[in-house]
Each structure stands twice: as C-alpha cells, then as structure tokens.
Design a protein that fits this description.
- The protein is α+β, with helices and mostly antiparallel strands.
- It folds into 4 domains: 104 residues, no CATH class; 64 residues; 247 residues, Aspartate Aminotransferase, domain 2 (3-Layer(aba) Sandwich), CATH 3.40.640.10; 122 residues, Aspartate Aminotransferase, domain 1.
- It is 36% helix and 18% strand.
- Helix 7 runs antiparallel to helix 14 and helix 9 packs across helix 13.
- The protein is globular and about 95 Å long.
- It binds pyridoxal-5'-phosphate.
- Pyridoxal-5'-phosphate binds next to helix 9.
Length: 606
C-alpha cells in the first residue's frame, strides 16, 4: 500500500495525469495535469473526503489509499469528465454471489489552478477553499426545501416549540470561531425548519398570511446570491422594479406613465407611512385630519403617530350594516377648514369589507386641493387579478395613493408590499435629499445623472434589497389569470364554509362574512336560551387554542361587536382544497362535543 506522503505521478490517459500529495495544511491535495501542465487542483480534508465519497472513505488517508490502489490496479475506473471532474466508478461486490454488485460513483471537482504566492495564502475570505463541498451542501438544501414543500400536508399546520429547542437556541454565545456549514445546517433542520408559524400549510387560515411559492423561494436564493443593492442606478434590479411597477399600475387602473410613481416596500404598513408623508407634503403645513372607518387597520394609527400628525386628528367614522364606511357620516364629519386624508379599505382585516370606493372618490373630487384619497388594499387590491372580483374594486382609478401587499394574496414570499402614488414629483420631493458627496451622480457608469431611477428617493430606505426579482419570477411563472382563479377558489371555499356552518347550526354560527375570503364564526350551544357570554367566549378561546396546538389548522381570534369572541378564517392559500374545508368542519364539530363535555363548560348545556 502506498504511503500517504509519497508523490507519484499517475498517468490517466494520453492527456491527463494526476499527483496525490499531502499538503502543508494537512489536506489531501490532488493535482490534475493536462498535457503536463498543472491546470486544476483540489484540497480535501477528512470531512470533505467523507462527503464526496458518500462515506465510503471516512478520512483523507482512506481516500488516498483507495485512489492509489485504483490507479495501480484499475486505472480505467478513474476518468476525467468535463475536464473539471475526476469521476471514480467502482463496482462493489458484497456477499458471495457475483450478482450482488453495487456500483459506487463519486466525483471530485477541481478548482482551476492559480499560482498563488505565499503571502497571498495568508489572505482570508468567506468563500470556501473548496467549492465542491459547499456545492454538495447547496444541493442538499435545495432538495430538502423542495421536499419541505412537497410533503407539507404530512406535517401539522403548526407545532409549538418544545422548551428544549428554545433552550438550545438561547444557550449559545456569539460565535467567536466559525463552525462547519454542514453542522449549522443540521441545527437549522432541527431548531428552525419545523417551527414556522405555519402559513405555508394548506390548513393555515389565520390572520392574512400568504402561502408563498417554490418559484418565489428560488427567486430569494438568486436574490441573495446576487446580493445587489437596489437603491437605483444602471442595473437590472432597477429595470425589473420599474417594469413591475408599470404592470401593477395597469392592474390597479392607475395612470401608467411617469406622472405617477411607485415603490416596492416591506408591506402595507410602510406603504401607508409613505402615502401619508406625501399627502402631508402636498398640504404644506396645514392641519391634516385622517378619516377612516372604525374597521380600518391599525397601521394607520402607527403612521399618524410616527409622522406626528396627532392622534386628535384621527376621525373614526361609523360603518353601515355591510361594515363599510358610512359615507353620510363621513361627509358630516369632514372639517371644511382643514385638509383630509380619506382612507378607503379594499378589504378590512376583520371581515374583508370593501368600502364604497367610488363614493369616497366622489367626495374627495369635490375638494381636490384639500382632500387626498388613499386606498388600503393590503388584502384585497390584488384581487383585481380576477375578472369576477374586479368590479368590487371600482374606484381605484381615482385614488391619490394605493398601498397593498404582494406577500398576501399574490403569494410572493415575505416581505413585499407596494405603494403607488398618483403624483410622482410630489412623491420624490417628499423623500429625496441633496446627494451626499459619495452618492454624487456621474456622466455615465453605474450612477448616471440622466435616465436612471433612484428608488431611494421615494421611500425610507437607502440600502434596499432586490424585492423585484421574486415578484417578477412569480408573475411571469404563474401569470395574472392563475392568481385570479386561486383568489376566486378561496372566495368560493369561504362561501362553502359559511354553508357548512349553516348545516351545523345547532353547534356553530357565522358572526360575520364579507365579499372576500374571510368568515368569522363561533361555537354556540343553543339559540333558544340565554347563555353566559363569558363562558361561551372562554369555550371559543379554548377551541381556537386546541385547533392550533393539535396542528389541525390555524385560525385566528377576533372580537365582533366588542365582546363576542370569534374564530376568524381567512383563506389566503393556494394549497387549500374544498375537501380540507369539509374535513375541518367535521373536526370542529367533534371538538365542540369534546369541549362541552368538560366540567367547566357543562353549565352551558343546562
Ligand atoms: C387591511 C390591512 N391593512 C394593512 C395591513 C398591514 O400590512 P403589512 O402587515 O403588510 O404591513 C394589514 C395586515 O394584515 C391589513 O390587513
């Protein structure tokens, strides 16, 4: 057997030869010579030798010995493929029968050999010394992630994190020295992956959370790899974002030209802050009151707070029986002496109610210099993808600003929202600042002063990631029509659930539902006699927690008319099937029986 420190030249064929050596860093080094010129090499440690050979050789000495043996006895089993890979192919016989043969194949990938002087060897980088090993980790992660999604139905909708897992995460100090990325990934698999909030699952119907998509996940990997800073300038990311904004303007029936503007942001909360800041700029220093229905989302209050508009300037308007803003009440409340930021909800978070957007637009049109018409389309705006649902959203064409999410019903992976503003110049003047000297625009190059858009002039962030690629790949891969169909499917599933609850009316009741994908319901005991609301609320809370903790499904809590605790189902999910809804109803019914048998709820039955 050859000694590990020997240097022998092995000719593989007329063109290639290799040398196996132990390198000064205690690696096994394999050099590949092409026509006697060193063209590629690779350094392998024990771990890499084990990975590459699929654990056939546990150490570099074992791989060295195996290669030496093969090169002496069975040279033909080693070949150079694609001039970068050394492919080793060996039949393994086990047992006595010759038929029981297994062919073991593994590849060793080389790096192009560069002459590096000793000084440069001391320089460090985060890149791997050897890309072969990290490639195998990358392939492993890709496979695992695809399985993670394809097997999602086999797992519970949600599972609590056991204390031992939380402890394992909390226990570690800031790492001083690095560890193997394989080990780190092992920790991801055991500590992180199983414990998401569950929104990819077909039975996730809580809050308003999108289900993402595999294509979106691929886009995130590409985005992370490109790692391009997307503040602006001459680069693909900016052109893609411009194109997406143009598509979204068309989808929202907004002027698709340079008079209007837009920006991809983290979500509707940030989009709302931007819209309010631009409106305030328009109204100079005059008082601006914010008018919205009492069903409007709390992100408005945060924006008012942050922009120092003053909570006394929030005017909460009552709603009608459809939970839409009451237009008459709004008109009566409008202050003729101050400016107004009028909010229309295109899908309220509690019930999915859509305000009369045309009616709001008409009111704003009467005082265009004083009133700004803003649409909160976080949930519903993208439902304009569906021809059937689009008429619900008439009035978008009159908005001064529209804030909406792509990470909800458009299934772009978190985070991604959008703000569109009708007044592009005003938008830019709200956020742009005189360029610091290091951001000076040039006559050409990456930052030309002519022709390029600098998105950092339109929002809060200078450093921005490339949100555009995941939107672009998602829209191109699936197309608007498919999204429209999925949204219609979700709306039909919600309507089906309402019908099911009506069939189980001795156990359940619908509290509210709207024109979209949201149903609020609760378990009841009897319609015929007065029941203790406090205990009924407790029962419903227990029901919600049990559904989640058993991993059956995820629905979220809601208070209807202030004091009725309800369960809220919002189907923003391309994986949900009608049969999932049927099964859930059966599980709800069984759970209701089970809970009502508990002593603390039995009084409800008397
Ligand atoms: C109606 C409405 N507006 C605004 C928001 C805030 O959006 P984001 O969480 O994307 O910031 C939400 C979130 O669910 C919402 O439902």
């Amino acid at each position: 057997m050859a000694s590990f420190n020997e240097k022998t030249i092995y000719e593989l064929n007329d063109e290639y030869s290799i040398i196996l050596i132990e390198d000064f860093n205690n690696h096994l080094k394999i050099e590949l010579y092409q026509n006697q010129i060193l063209t590629y090499d690779v350094l392998l440690n024990d771990h890499q030798c084990s990975t590459i050979t699929h654990k056939l050789c546990e150490t570099k000495a074992e791989l060295y010995n195996l290669l030496c043996d093969l090169l002496i006895t069975m040279k033909s089993s080693i070949s150079v493929t694609n001039s970068r890979y050394l492919e080793i192919l060996l039949p393994i016989y086990f047992g006595h029968e010759k038929t029981r043969t297994k062919v073991w194949i593994f590849k060793i990938e080389f790096q192009r050999f560069l002459f590096i002087d000793d000084k440069k060897m001391d320089e460090i980088s985060l890149d791997p010394l050897d890309w072969t090993e990290i490639r195998s980790l990358g392939h492993q992660i890709m496979d695992d992630m695809i399985n993670y999604l394809s097997d999602i139905r086999l797992r519970p909708a949600w599972r609590p994190m056991p204390p031992i897992v939380r402890k394992a995460i909390a226990q570690t100090d800031i790492p001083l020295k690095g560890q193997s990325p394989f080990e780190v990934y092992d920790e991801v698999c055991s500590l992180v992956l199983p414990y998401s909030v569950g929104n990819n699952h077909p039975h996730f119907w809580g809050y308003v959370q999108g289900t993402g998509s595999l294509i979106g996940a691929f886009a995130e990997f590409i985005t992370g790899t490109m790692n391009t800073m997307s503040w602006g300038g001459h680069q693909a990311s900016i052109y893609i974002e411009r194109q997406i904004l143009s598509w979204l303007k068309v989808l929202m029936n907004f002027p698709n030209d340079d008079t209007s503007s837009g920006l991809l942001v983290s979500g509707t909360s940030v989009a709302t802050i931007i819209a309010m800041a631009v409106a305030r700029k328009k109204f100079c220093n005059r008082t601006m009151k914010v008018y919205c229905s009492k069903e409007a989302h709390s992100c408005l209050i945060r924006a008012i707070d942050l922009l120092n508009i003053g909570k006394e300037n929030i005017i909460s308007i009552s709603t009608n029986s459809e939970r839409q803003i009451d237009l008459k009440a709004l008109e009566a409340a409008l202050d003729p002496y101050s400016c107004g930021f009028i909010v229309g909800s295109a899908g309220t978070v509690a019930t999915g109610a859509i305000d009369d957007l045309k009616g709001l637009a008409n009111i704003c049109a009467r005082r265009p210099n004083d009133l700004w018409f803003h649409i909160d389309g976080a949930i519903g705006a993208v439902a304009r993808c569906s021809k059937r649902l689009r008429p619900l959203f008439n009035g978008f064409e009159h908005a001064d600003s529209i804030a909406f999410d792509l990470h909800k019903w458009l299934f772009v992976p978190y985070e991604c929202g959008c703000i569109l503003i009708r007044h592009g110049e005003l938008h830019k003047s709200t956020f742009s600042q005189p360029a610091a000297s290091y951001l000076t625009l040039m006559d050409g190059g990456i930052t030309p002063s002519e022709g390029e858009v600098f998105f950092s002039d339109y929002g809060l962030e200078l450093s921005r990631n490339m949100k555009s690629l995941k939107v672009w790949m998602t829209l191109k891969t699936y197309g608007i029509e498919k999204f429209g169909q999925i949204m219609e499917q979700n709306v039909d599933q919600a309507k089906h659930f309402v019908r099911l609850i009506e069939q189980y009316s001795n156990q359940f009741e619908v509290l509210t539902t709207g024109p979209l994908n949201i149903v609020c319901f609760r378990c009841i005991v009897s319609r015929s006699h007065v029941i203790d609301l406090e205990i009924l609320n407790k029962l419903n809370k227990q029901m919600l927690i049990t559904i989640q903790e058993r991993g059956t499904a995820v629905v979220s809590p809601i208070a209807i008319d202030h004091n009725k605790f309800g369960l809220r189902m919002c189907i923003t999910n391309h994986r949900t099937k009608m049969s999932d809804i049927d099964k859930f109803m059966e599980q709800l019914s069984q759970l209701a029986d089970e809970l009502l048998n508990l002593p603390e709820y039995s009084c409800l039955l008397n």
